[in-house]
Amino acid sequence: MPYLASLTFPDGWNVRLRCLLCAPTYPEDVRSAEVPRSHLVLRRFTDLAEQLFPATPVHAVVPPEATTLSSRDGSPIGKTFPTPSQLPPVCCIGDLEADAGTRDVVLPTSRLVIIWFQGVPPPVPIEPQVVDVLSRFDWSAHATNCLY
């Protein structure tokens, strides 16, 4: 299976981007005074990711100065921006996988869906500043092992 991109995380995981979905963060017809609050925007994309990938954990990667949100089951999904004007115009939902290797011989694949926001739509799948954030991501703490 061809992959869109691959990253090596600091804990040694070689992670592959299986699928990338991108959408405008806000509808085109929304005026700036009507922009939904950022936590509602993140909730909408989190719900979408949970529907599209129901067996895979979802985590949002956003700037650290924001407040923490929780998923439907109460676990943290990341952080959201304090004001809606700070959300970049493109929301990306990436389905990622890694080989568990010797970490788990029964469940050989590890998967995670990550949501991030960026300024440019594809063909540039991941902006350099997002790659920088992802390269410091603790894959083991968020991904789940599974059969593929």
Helix content: 10-25%
Oligomer: single chain
Return the average pLDDT rounded to an integer: 75
Radius of gyration: 15 Å
Largest sheet: 6 strands, mixed
Shape: globular
Overall tally of domains = 1
User: What percentage of the residues does DSSP assign to strands (E)?
Assistant: 25-35%
Features:
6-stranded mixed β-sheet, alpha+beta, 18% helix, 148 residues, globular, 3 helices
Quick description:
The protein is an alpha+beta fold. Helices cover 18% and strands 34% of the residues.
Question: Would you spell out the secondary-structure blueprint of this structure?
Answer:
Blueprint: E1 5-8, E2 14-24, H1 38-52, E3 58-61, E4 67-70, E5 76-80, E6 90-99, E7 109-118, H2 128-135, H3 139-142, E8 144-146
Task: Describe what you observe in this structure.
- The protein is α+β, with helices and mostly antiparallel strands and 148 residues long.
- It has one domain.
- The chain is 18% helix and 34% strand.
- The protein has three helices and eight strands; from the N terminus they run ββαβββββααβ.
- The protein has helices at 38-52, 128-135, 139-142, and strands spanning 5-8, 14-24, 58-61, 67-70, 76-80, 90-99, 109-118, 144-146.
- A hairpin with a 5-residue loop joins strand 4 (67-70) and strand 5 (76-80).
- The two termini are 12 Å apart.
- Residues 64-69 and 80-85 have low confidence and may be disordered.
